[in-house]
Each structure stands twice: as C-alpha cells, then as structure tokens.
Write a structure and sequence with these properties.
The protein is α/β, with parallel strands linked by helices. Helices cover 22% and strands 21% of the residues. Helix 1 crosses helix 2.
Length: 251
C-alpha cells in the first residue's frame, strides 16, 4: 500500500521472489567444450560464477583433459599440480590425540564416515588437482579451469602432464614424494626435499608427525609465557636498580 507521500508500506509489500541463479556463460561454454571433447570421462563439475570452473574427470582422461584445456580453451599457462588426501587425520590435531578428546572435546574421526571431497565431488581418498589458465581472454581477465581426478588407493598413478606443460615436472616430483603418486611417462621422478632413503609420504593424513610427539603443538597444549620483567638487583650501597639500568653510564 502507498500513502499520500508516495511511500510504500513495506508491511503490505509482497515478499521478494528468489533471485535466479547467476549464469556464467563463459565458464559454462568451457564446460560444454570439455564435455564435448571428453564425453563420459567428465564425471562431475562445479562453476563458481565469475571465479573458477572445476571439472572432475576419470583418471584415464587426466592427460586428455589437460590437453583439451590447452588446445581448445587456450589454457597455455600451467599454474599448479598437486594432490589431496581426504582422509580425516587418525591422530587428531597431532599425535597426542587424547588431549584433543579430553581437553578440546574433539572426537576421533569415524573411519566409516563417507569422505567429504569438496566441489565437483569425488569417490576416493586421494585426488589429483591441476589448474591451467587462459591469460589472453578477450576481456583481459585470465580465466582458469581446475581439474580433479580420483585415484584408487591400490593404484596411485596417472599419466604425466610434462609433455604438455614442462612446468609440471617439479610439481609431479613433489606429488610423488609427498603422496606416493606415480606419474607414468615422467622424465625422472626423484626426491626434491627428502633424503633418498626416507620412508613414507609426509603429506598423507596417516603419516605420523613424530616431532609433535617429542614436543606437542604449542597452540593446542599451551603457549610459552611472555618474557618476565628484568629482576631488580641490589647495588653495593644497598639500593636497587633494574638490569636495564645496570649497564648504563656512570657519572
């Protein structure tokens, strides 16, 4: 209802209808292009309008997806390649997990609980991630696509992207070293950070961080106290002075 002044009575106004979802025509077009190139190998996707396109593909289409992004979408800039272990840490926030349960009330993870694998979904504990960017889109704003691929626990391997993107070389080496994922066709998987005889893969959630057994994480247990004020010292004449003043000049 509107009064004589032309003001609308908000109490009588009809509720606003829910706004239609935002459509990102550019990224939707990219998704359509990738789906046309890869077919059923595209098993999941997610578009954050104006931000990023996520596409989950079959492991066997990992190389083909990156190739389609480069050749069909103009994503000639390789940004990163890595992996993620979606398994909740069996240690809590660190190895002395009883503290998590008793003091912080954080329960141990239930291994039977389905894994949460982020946007575009997932069906395995380990996933590969790769981001490629088109830096020459018409409006001047770079546009990217992030690929995901599920890796079965008993066969952690995928085809190397080095023939497409030379910059993937060290990323795949790090992924091999930290997660134990093999990249078929890589020119030379070898350690970047760890000594050659090191056993295990430190970025897996079930890898024990032994340093946190020796010294628990300070943010969980306690925080070191602030340095105390300098203690007062008594001088030879019976007066006191602080340590800050003791080293001063004498008259």
């Amino acid at each position: 209802m509107t009064d004589a002044t032309g003001t609308t009575d908000t109490a009588d106004a009809a509720p606003d209808e829910e706004a239609p979802p935002e459509v990102d025509e550019l990224r939707q077009g990219w998704l359509d292009t990738l789906t046309g190139a890869l077919g059923d190998a595209v098993v999941g996707s997610h578009i954050a309008p104006g931000r990023v396109l996520w596409v989950r593909v079959e492991r066997d289409a990992w190389f083909d997806a990156a190739e389609a992004a480069r050749e069909r979408l103009g994503c000639t800039f390789f940004d990163f390649l890595s992996a993620i272990d979606w398994l909740p840490s069996p240690w809590g926030r660190y190895e002395d997990a009883e503290l998590d349960v008793l003091d912080a009330g954080i329960p141990r993870p239930d291994p039977s609980t389905p894994l949460e694998t982020g946007v575009a979904g997932g069906g395995t504990r380990f996933q590969l991630l790769c981001r490629a960017i088109n830096v020459r889109v018409p409006d001047g704003h770079p546009v990217d696509v992030v690929f995901k691929a599920d890796l079965p626990d008993d066969d952690l391997r995928a085809r190397s992207l080095v023939p497409l993107y030379a910059g993937a070389n060290w990323h795949e080496r790090e992924c091999w070293e930290m997660f134990g994922i093999t990249f078929d066709g890589h020119p030379g998987l070898r350690h970047l950070y760890l000594p050659g005889e090191f056993e295990g893969h430190p970025l897996r959630k079930d890898f024990p961080l032994l340093a946190r057994i020796v010294k628990p994480w300070p943010g969980v247990v306690d925080v070191e106290p602030m340095p105390e004020e300098p203690a007062a010292e008594e001088t030879s004449n019976g007066e006191t002075e602080s340590n800050d003043d003791a080293g001063g000049e004498t008259a």
